[in-house]
Design brief:
Layout lengths: L3 E5 L2 E2 L6 H16 L7 E4 L1 H10 L1 H23 L2 E2 L5 E2 L1 E6 L10 E5 L5 H9 L2 H18 L13 H13 L9 H19 L7 H15 L3 H10 L8 E6 L10 E6 L11 E6 L3 H6 L5 E2 L2 H10 L4 H7 L3 H4 L1 H18 L3 E8 L2 E9 L4 H13 L5 H6 L3 H7 L3 E2 L1 H6 L2 E4 L1 E4 L2 E7 L11 E5 L7 H6 L2 E4 L7 H9 L2 E4 L5 E3 L4 E4 L2 E4 L3 E5 L4 E4 L4 E2 L5 H13 L3 E5 L3 H9 L5 E5 L7 H12 L3 H25 L4 E5 L13 H11 L3 H11 L11 H6 L1 H20 L5 E6 L5 H22 L6 E6 L2 H5 L1 H5 L4 E4 L1 H9 L10 H7 L15 H15 L4 E4 L7 H10 L3 E4 L4 H10 L3
Parallel strand pairs: 4-5, 17-18, 18-19, 19-20, 27-28, 27-34, 28-29, 29-30, 30-31, 31-32, 32-33, 33-34
Antiparallel strand pairs: 1-2, 1-3, 3-8, 6-7, 6-8, 9-10, 9-12, 10-11, 12-13, 14-26, 15-25, 16-20, 17-24, 21-22, 22-23, 24-25
The chain binds phosphoenolpyruvate and magnesium ion.
Magnesium ion binds next to helix 32.
Length: 898
Amino acid sequence: KTRVYRFGNKVADGNSKMKNLLGGKGANLAEMSAIGIPVPPGFTITTEVCTEYNLLGEVAVIDMIRDEVEASITNIETLMGTRFGDKDNPLLVSVRSGARVSMPGMMDTVLNLGLNDEVVLGLAKKTNNEQFAWDSYRRFIQMYGGVVLGMKPASKDDIDPFEEIMENLKGKRGIQLDTEFTVQDLKDLVYDFKEAVKKQTGHSFPTNPWEQLWGAIIAVFNSWNGDRAVYYRNMNGYPADWGTAVNVQAMVYGNMGNSSATGVCFTRDAGTGENVFNGEYLINAQGEDVVAGVRTPQQITVLGSKRWAELAQISEEDRKENYPSLEEVMPGLFKELDGYQQKLEKHYRDMQDMEFTIQEGKLWILQTRNGKRTGAGMVKIAMDLLNEGLIDEKEALLRIEPNKLDELLHPVFDPKALKRAHVIAQGLPASPGAATGKIVFFADEAAKFKNSILVRIETSPEDLEGMHIAKGILTARGGMTSHAAVVARGMGKCCISGAGALKINYKARTLTVDGHEYHEGDWISLNGSTGNIIEGKVETVEPELSGEFAEIMKLSDKYAKMKVRTNADTPKDAKIARTFGAEGIGLTRTEHMFFEVDRIKAMREMILADTVKGRKQALQDLLPMQRSDFEGIFEAMEGLPVTIRLLDPPLHEFVPHQLATQKELAEEMHISLQAVKNKVAELEEFNPMLGHRGCRLGNTYPEITEMQTRAIIEAALNLKERGIICKPEIMVPLVGTVDEFIAQECIIRETANAIFEERNDKVEYSVGTMIEVPRAALLADKIAEHADFFSFGTNDLTQMTFGYSRDDAGKFLPIYIQKGILKVDPFEVLDQEGVGQLVQLGTERGRSIKPNLKVGICGEHGGEPSSVEFCYNTGMNYVSCSPYRVPIARLVSAQATI
Ligand code: PEP
Ligand code: MG
């Protein structure tokens, strides 16, 4: 079995299809090398070795790969003409993680490996650059110390132990920047760093390059199980047994003087999707300098540079003088880079995110991967690639991540409110969207307020969880490719980076701009599309959807076979859903119409009535309200089917539980307070979710079903008179036995017939049932003899199949998920293994009686991608979901057919 794969000099053992074995990075390096892109030579230790390491431990694994690793280092030595550990002509290497999917910054990296007190002298002599050699050495000790030897800050308020030594020296020397250190300063730093290591760890810093290499390889394996990586894996549902590969590669340097540089670039705009090559670079710098945001990075292209200068309000003269683009500074190398980016995008047929280094006039590509992008970027890039002929329609659809569409549907700032807004500063529009919230300065405090904006000098992978919780992210440092920017775009979270005007004081928890001080808890708003930072809270409105979005939806409809309806309780929701492409309503929860103030009174009178006569009187008052609601909904959904569900929740939800409201009600109804109290007590249930609800209400109080049927049928007749066609589907909830359904159906049909006679007119309607009690799924064939349609209520079906109360599951489900007892929340993602069996069986048994039985789903799962796919595979006619999920369901419905 091969455990180590080599690449370099336009050949490679692996290729891009071997992501599972070589990790994304390793597979891409192999592929790039094979297609003639200049990557520094190196080798990849497979992800399987990581798993072996987790099982067998360090000693056994090193034994297993020692020969292969040693031979592969020799191969790099030959290709680079250098020698590992040689004090005259040293080879230095980088050691990086690389899982099968990109996990930016979640795992560890060590650069400049192979340096020691002797090698550093050789490096200085060879490059004729003492400054560079000693700077590399101090960076190496710093990184290796942190990653391999565990030299970390003691707590979050503490400064990194190496940073502290550097800050002290800067103070002593009266300098500000790392670049101002003299050679002697760097030598002193190296000495002090090594002393600090010895003091904190009890061991000397390792001087043998081989010992360094094995230490780094093991540290990268360990970082797969580090806190950050585990959190990221859990957030994205990546299993622990994937493991990470380790990539060892010859170092090339962007910091060997002014003919050297390093940068990050994208073949298209990751924010908007626009087809423009863009990115950032720094002359005489190492990769991490661009991302860490210590220096202001410059743009790769002239176009990008000019756009950047405009945002930063920098004059053209100033720009040319101080921030020129790579295209202007190194035109020949820019052209070469431009050639590679075009070649790579064509090769991978997707937007690439690349890292490059120029070492003394020679360009090296360090990495390429499919770039992370915003939801808007994703849609535009997919449509553009389709129109450019790089991918076909099916591929374009598959390029859309369903959940990311969500970002496009979310609110933006109200243009009217924006006019009044006070912009306090501007940063880079790192990730679009609108966010408004209260300032927090620490990632682990992001949950302190319901809506928070995380304000940091810069972010680091440690901040991931807080970035996830915060509504938006604002950093004072860092460019468009900084950690904050890249991670935020991946999360679809609004982010502004590099707002240099902000002075952030973590200790005092203040943010100062132009002499004005803002504190923790103050409201601010971020416009991630323009980079504007706005004082206070700004109202938001619904977004306008782009042309590309509409095109993707049109394409979805071309391929989709299953329909998408919406769950809507009001004409307003129905209208929104229709603009998102809903093809009808799959569920109107009629009880939601009773919660309004003036209605709840009538409802309460109905519930408190002692006699049938009293109840009928109260229902008479409710009738016109329901009828007009239904008219509104039918009108909004003109011509499309509308499923209306009869009253479902337990009655006690409607009665007043507070003394003051009880008194008020007693007065209004001219009954005693005690009578009200008695009724409330009488309705009390131990387990309301399994109590007197659903069709059990309609069967014990048939007047309710009568009134609701009347409202539905009369509304339909009224619209018919106005020439509007509607197709009501009356749905009976929580049926468990066929007789429960038959009893309700009788009332519905009798009522409808009576109205048809009264009005001497007719409308078509159907009567169906929800399948949400396991018994109904089991007896679906019996029920199908009577019901016109089925709609799976997977919320209740999940509750009753698992035996988890919907109202109480919040107490233990998070712990179950944390402990891995459940992989996901079954109320969010349909449990295909268990609940899914009932759905499948219910559908089959129903259709064994009525082969054309219309079957749908209206539980919350109807808008969750994996569940929608399952519904398609089960043969459902439609899924129904909340209005904002409709586009997602349409897309998945199409993807499921591909
Ligand atoms: C269901 O149970 O899945 C359903 C749609 O009904 P409700 O959530 O109103 O109980
Ligand atoms: Mg239900």
